[in-house]
Specification:
Elements lengths: L1 H24 L9 H33 L4 H24 L5 E2 L4 E2 L2 H34 L1
Antiparallel strand pairs: 1-2
Helix pairs in contact: 1-2, 3-4
Length: about 140
């Protein structure tokens, strides 16, 4: 599996770089180039990569639990924490009452899209704060050893 990932990673990175370059360097002023297609393709690629990453992460976690069932308690606690953070972010976002302007259509986004976007931002904030706290804790605990 290690060799597979070793050779697959550069290919995936190259595809990502090519799609980002395509999306960046297509100019909307050029009538022959459809910039929306470039950006749409980049978004679809991102969704595919995210979906595959989620499936692989879940499969790897299940496989690891099958191999070493002693870590089941920690996995359940982590899973409950993730679900709690996502649900908390959703309920907080659902309580906000504001509209996001859709500039392309000169309207506002629907309520569901606004709640999902806001919840996603809140989850990203919590994940970022967790990463910062983990880095600080790790640095302090390593310094004290």
């Amino acid at each position: 599996m290690g060799k597979f990932i070793k050779y697959l990673s550069p290919i995936l990175i190259a595809v990502c770089v090519a799609l980002v370059a395509w999306a960046i360097f297509t100019t909307p002023e050029d009538p022959t180039v459809d910039n929306a297609t470039a950006v749409g393709s980049l978004l679809v690629w991102g969704y595919i990569i995210a979906g595959v990453a989620i499936v692989v992460a879940v499969f790897a976690a299940i496989w690891d639990l099958i191999q070493k069932p002693t870590g089941l308690k920690g996995t359940i606690i982590a899973g409950v924490a993730v679900v709690a953070i996502i649900l908390g972010a959703y309920f907080i976002a659902n309580g906000h009452d504001y509209q996001i302007l859709d500039i392309g259509n000169q309207t506002f986004f629907e309520r569901g899209e606004t709640v999902i976007a806001d919840a996603s931002i809140l989850v990203a904030y919590v994940a970022g704060a967790g990463a910062i706290i983990s880095a600080i804790y790790s640095a302090i605990s390593d310094a004290l050893k």
